[in-house]
TrEMBL record:
It comes from Corallococcus carmarthensis. This is IS66 family transposase.
Length: 52
């Protein structure tokens, strides 16, 4: 488990993203990496919605 509300929220969000990506048969590591790179560069994160 996590030790804080923030930690629990982070886990919820990551697991939701992982499940959405798997349902769409998208590469989870590639998608999460792209999201982190976008955050670091101050650009919009890639969409988790299908076909976008």
């Amino acid at each position: 488990g996590t030790q804080s509300e923030d930690g629990s929220r982070f886990v919820e969000r990551i697991l939701t993203a992982v499940m959405s990506l798997r349902k769409q048969e998208r590469n989870v590591l590639d998608a999460l990496t792209a999201s982190l790179e976008a955050h670091l560069h101050g650009t919009p994160a890639p969409s988790l919605l299908p076909g976008t």
